[in-house]
Amino acid sequence: MADTVALFTSIGLSEQKAKETLKNEALSCALKDAIVQAQRVRGASGVDKAMGTLLYSMASRLKDTNRLAFLSDCIVQCKLTTELQLAGHFPDCSLTQENHFNNHPQDPINQREFEEACGVGVVITPEQIEDGVESVIKKHKEQLLKERYHFNMGLLMGEARSALKWADGKVVKNEVDMQVLHLLGPKTEADLEKKPKPQKAKVAENEVKAKKEEVAVNGEAMTGEGKSLMEQLRGEALKFHKPGENYKTEGYVVTPKTMDLLKKHMEIIGGQIRTRFPPEPNGILHIGHAKAINFNFGYAKANNGICFLRYDDTNPEKEEEKYFTGIKDMVEWLGYEPHAVTHASDNFQQLYDLAVDLIRRGHAYVCHQKGEELKGHNVPPSPWRDRPIEESLVLFERMKKGLFAEGEATLRMKMVMEDGKMDPVAYRIKYTPHHRTGDEWCIYPTYDYTHCLCDSIENITHSLCTKEFQARRSSYYWLCNALDVYCPVQWEYGRLNLTYTVVSKRKIIRLVETGVVRDWDDPRLFTLTALRRRGFPAEAINNFCARVGVTVSQTTTEPHLLESCARDVLNDTAPRAMAVLEPLKVTITNLPENSKAEVRVPDFPANEAKGSHTVPFTHTIYIEQSDFREVLEKGYKRLTPEQPVGLRHAGYVISVQKVIKDTQGKVVELEVSCCNSETAEKPKAFIHWVSQPLVCEVRLYERLFLHKHPEDPSEVPNGFLSDINPNSLHVISSALVDTSVKGAKVFDKFQFERVGYFSLDPNSTADKLVFNRTVTLKEDPGKI
User: Residue ranges of the tRNA synthetases class I (E and Q) anti-codon binding domain (predicted)?
Assistant: First the structure.
């Protein structure tokens, strides 16, 4: 078995996947034969992961094992290199290997017919894709111009895929999107409006939608699909309890004093919903916290309630002022205003008094087991669990007076948590001055003790927390009831995780210490300060949280969904500017050397009423190096010696007169002539340009990690620090940007036409502006 697992992992399968495969006898036999066949041709180390993926796909789908050797050879010989070509093992494919074999059951296999049926050796060039999509769009151009973005784009994709059978679907889709954008321009407000539907269809759709709606919260299923976050968070929508009706919640513990406590609670809150966002001030907030902020503040806001920002400041060793201010800044940046800013330390005296009461009631005791003994879930029972109450009261007082060393004594609660952990610690000794109380205290309460009691003290109605705290719900209820204080209701929701990143404080500190990133706000990270610095609008992050939805299950999402939300917001809010990242000098020979005109550029071309700015147009301009080629190739539409091109917004078409090169043969300058675009033949393309520009630094970012799950040992055996993408940051120190950005302030955002969305970085100076690329204009089709 071990040998077979090793064989399977040698082609790129994870150990877990290999073991799962072994459970399927037919599949494991077929895969083993396929690998042996492949290694016979390529050698033991010659089967890479891509080839291994195809072998696995083939073995898991092929029904006729007589063909296994033949198909293995085709994969090894690189005749079948894509899943599209290998789709021959799906019975619902129209023309595939399986269909080919069914139609040609006789041996030997007709090699020519097989290769023709499976696209062997067929290469679809980018130019062919561009031409194929262009002909499809040309066919529907009239209707496209009439209906614009309400046109059924699926029709274009279907016809393009039919015409380009063996092309990569993602590349085809990207080309369709780009050509549609070129034809129609960016979406207008009218394009964003929903297309009206017949009444009957709408009614039927609403019925289906009602059935589909499903966002799970504590087992209650509902949905957030198509709804704003506020709509999802309406009290009725989430089926949460109403204030004062805590006892109606499943699992809520009712005691003889519950109803009296709820009555007093209602007198204090007046029936208003109260929530809290309770971060520990020992690190910077990340994208997962954005969901917590939106859920806690958003639920209160959606239901006319209030939300407290409460710092859980019970560990003085790790708390710093910068974290307190940073957390509040991020909450306000996301658009929320706390009803009040509170601290767990506000209640230190009251929490201590309650601990004394807990001992008197026989529910807590002072223990002398060491910290190492208390770790994990199989903690041995404390020999001090049944010590006399009076003795624990005296010892707890001695703890408070500093008469024990750190780790020499703790206060533990007599209860068993849902995960089986016995007698959690309520107080421990720490001789570290507190950020707010100084040396007043040397004993500090733990989360398990503090959290529910602070919720009770603040009369929180809904204690919203992530799913991992479900194991603490019973202890939450137990402690409040053991002390006969008001008991809120704890509700759990799924935490939000992103791929291609790490968010733990410890790992980010390692990234900073090793110089991989500059600090907590390095734009390649997914802390909220990093996202703000990179240029993500707060609105986009809130929209992202709404699109993920309020789910009880843990959500792992890819960054492109967040990037899509950013594009949606920035398209409407980021004014346009022109920037050239890799400049090529262009001299316009038929303009006087001292000529200078002002060109008006709309800030938002789709809605020119939103304003404009002017940029100079002179004898010398700069274009992107990639917008010129010496040799005209099929499908290339920009500037060549034989092909003129238009200049965006300028009203001119330029034609090459002379190509100037340096001693190494590199093109360093073009001499061109220009003519008015109204009199010239319409060019195939319009390019951006700059004249008398600002020299700026531009920082282009890619994913920080190479793998989706850099913390997963099965994906990254050598640890997350070994998975750093060496191309995650590309700095262009002398990019040229038009003068409209000259007065920009830090975090101001722009769309650099045809390049991407950018934000002004805090490193900018009066002498040199620095821009961070937030996202490209379109999602990269190469991203997985």
Answer: 686-761
- Averaging pLDDT over each range in 36-50, 335-349, 544-558, which range is the top one? 335-349
CA triple 48-51-54, angle to 5 deg: 145
Going along 231-321, which residue ranges are E strands? 274-277, 306-311
Distance CA 108, CA 664 (A): 57
Report the C-alpha gap between 429 and 400 in whole angstroms: 8
Q: Which amino acid is at 730?
A: H
Q: What is the mean pLDDT of residues 593-602?
A: 93
Give the active site residue among 280, 702, 711, 779. 280
Pick the catalytic residue from 170, 187, 436, 505. 505
- Angle, to 10 degrees, between the axis of helix 49-61 and the axis of helix 68-76? 160
Ramachandran bin of 630, using left for φ above 0, alpha for ψ from -120 to 50, beta for the remaining angles: alpha
- All domains of the chain in start order, with CATH: 1-118 (1.10.8.1290), 135-185 (no CATH), 579-688 (2.40.240.10), 697-776 (2.40.240.10)
Q: 714, 783, 719: which is closest to 13 by C-alpha? A: 714
The answer to whether residues 481 and 255 touch, using CB atoms and an 8 Å cutoff, is yes
Annotated active-site residue in 227, 301, 473, 495? 495
Q: How far apart, in whole angstroms, are the C-alpha atoms of residue 638 and residue 625?
A: 11
Edge-to-edge strand order for the sheet containing 340-343?
274-277, 306-311, 340-343
Helix (H, G, I), strand (E, B) or coil at 546: helix
Residues with Cβ within 8 Å of 642's Cβ and at least 6 positions away in sequence, in order, are 632
Q: Is 280 designated active site?
A: yes
Question: pLDDT tens digits, residue range 326-351?
Answer: 999 999 999 999 999 999 999 999 99
Give the global pTM. Answer: 0.70
